[in-house]
User: Which sequence fits this backbone?
């Protein structure tokens, strides 16, 4: 249980870090805004034409009498939108990180330098195009895993009682894990840790990962919140990645306070 609280603490620390570095926070909003516009457009389209899509996919219900046809297709339309919303939450981070890769890479490096005792940050040594390719490839693999989980949870949602209680809770924990994987990938990929090793590392501290990613995933369900939390989420994931790897970390907040208290020469 302690790891759950520690994971949430890293989420808060990341938000505090970007709050103290306003310029980095401002640039970090741009990729999220672009992704948000794309996703809102897709969800609005689905909400508008979702029933038509369901009707096309269920021709066997054309001859159903009474209210059953409307209830059945309406139920499927709601489930389809819920699945699309879950996929949007699962993939929002991957798409935003891909769009904002250069910035988030820079932000993660600055966090590492800020909290590293020697003021340095690990570097991959790879050219930008290579880093973008690896990021896109790994993100696609994670999205495929997330989609498989989403389909499974969608199917389990039809089970009476369990589908309305246990499955949604399980869905949020699955979402939290994949969100955290995508966010920590920025720092871990820079350390040349491949996807399989990253997944093994995260699975070794699942409660820590859930403590970070699950509340983040829940907050991402609130319109526009994901955009404003993304820069801090990247910063917090970088700090948590250092703990997962056992790297020494100094408290950047304490350092800032010491700098603020130090007298200015000539004053």
Assistant:
């Amino acid at each position: 249980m302690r790891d759950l609280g520690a994971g949430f603490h890293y989420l808060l620390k990341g938000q505090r870090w970007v709050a103290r570095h306003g310029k980095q926070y401002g640039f970090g909003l741009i990729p999220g805004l672009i992704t948000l516009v794309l996703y809102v457009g897709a969800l609005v389209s689905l909400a508008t034409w979702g029933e038509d899509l369901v009707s096309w996919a269920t021709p066997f219900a054309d001859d159903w009498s009474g209210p059953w046809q409307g209830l059945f297709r309406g139920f499927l339309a709601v489930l389809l939108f819920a699945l699309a919303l879950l996929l949007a939450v699962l993939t929002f981070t991957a798409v935003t990180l891909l769009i904002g890769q250069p910035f988030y890479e820079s932000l993660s490096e600055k966090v590492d330098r800020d909290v590293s005792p020697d003021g340095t940050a690990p570097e991959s040594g790879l050219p930008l195009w290579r880093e973008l390719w690896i990021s896109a490839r790994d993100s696609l693999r994670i999205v495929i895993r997330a989609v498989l989980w989403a389909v499974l949870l969608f199917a389990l949602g039809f089970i009476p009682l369990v589908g309305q209680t246990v499955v949604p809770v399980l869905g949020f924990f699955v979402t939290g894990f994949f969100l955290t994987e995508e966010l920590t990938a920025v720092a871990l990929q820079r350390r040349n840790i491949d996807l399989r090793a990253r997944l093994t590392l995260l699975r070794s501290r699942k409660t820590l990962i859930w403590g970070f990613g699950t509340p983040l995933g829940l907050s991402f369900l609130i319109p526009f919140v994901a955009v404003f939390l993304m820069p801090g989420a990247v910063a917090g994931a970088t700090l948590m990645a250092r703990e997962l790897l056992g790297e020494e970390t100094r408290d950047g907040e304490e350092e800032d306070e010491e700098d603020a208290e130090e007298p200015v020469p000539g004053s």
Notes: The two ends are 49 Å apart (CA to CA). The first helix runs from residue 2 to 20. Confidence is low (pLDDT under 50) at residues 254-267. The chain is about 80% helix and 0% strand.
